[in-house]
Amino acid sequence: MKTDIISIIVPCYNEEATLSYFRQEMQRTADSMSAAGDLDFEFLFVDDGSTDQTLEQLRRFAKQDSRIRYLSFSRNFGKEAAIYAGLQNCTGNYAAVMDADLQDPPSLLPEMYRLLQSGEFDSVATRRVSRKGEPPIRSFFARSFYKLINQISDTDIVDGARDFRLMKRPMVDAIVSMGEYNRFSKGIFGWVGFRTKWLPYENVERVAGETKWSFWKLFKYSLQGIVAFSTAPLAIASVAGIVLCFAAFVMICYIVIKTLIFGDPVGGWPSLACMVMFMGGIQLFCTGILGQYLAKTYLETKRRPIYIVAETNQDALK
Ligand code: UDP
Ligand code: MG
Fold first, then answer.
1. Which one of 6, 112, 187, 267 is CB 3.0 to 4.6 Å from 94, fit for a cystine?
2. What residue owns the CA closest to ligand 1's atom 3?
3. pTM of whole model > 0.90?
């Protein structure tokens, strides 16, 4: 029995084109690491309701290699749910989350493992320093998002951070203990704390297939991140209210003085119309923000499961 077990968690959604590349590359790294040290691997593939041949491939993989286990969701629950399922069901004393498309290079693992063994850190995370191969407009919005969220949230959310990180068991358990329904891993990793070492690397493009994230999906995900890790937007209503009251007071003074000095010429319909529209807009905007938080609270209170497993080759789910 080897002393260390690294669980590799791989969320897969329609990844039939990339899985065999991933397995090959991963196998190579795992073999060389197992040969060099006292450690073993466990692979936990989480099929996130794929509609292509992903599940068939996983069944085949599992028959060929006893270290490979898989969970298959009853529908697409999203990458966050897949990560949670993986962390909850992995058994290793180390765990790493990796994308199936080789954008998280397995070649970084030996270095990450070495850093953790030194005992100085509890997790080694990766951060891409370039966004090569990404549309510039997407990079622009991504950067703006990180700037904004770091200003309004107490949790540190690192720009360019990937979900790819190797963690020790205590950190895995801490993450699993956060059973919230609206999950935003980048925030959760930061929130649980622990000593983290950041490894920068150049962006790698997807080996095959295509990204599952449309611009719109990313936009909604970023809003979810903000709602989950900051309550600053809720303050907007109060601040706007104070500012507007002050502006109204100044205007009242102005109108009173003007009327006293120049009499009362009727007019001002356009300014009145503008003000009504402006006030209506601000009020709807603030109600909308409230609604966002209320909606999340509503979903959270239902305590629905984060994922549902339809099929697995695991002997027993944890
Ligand atoms: N993924 C998932 N569920 C989803 C979307 C994506 O499990 O609903 C997985 C996907 O299979 C991949 C990883 O999450 O392993 C990252 O997805 P992708 O490469 O499409 O995202 P990108 O790298 O473009 O951000
Ligand atoms: Mg990718």
1. 6
2. 79
3. no
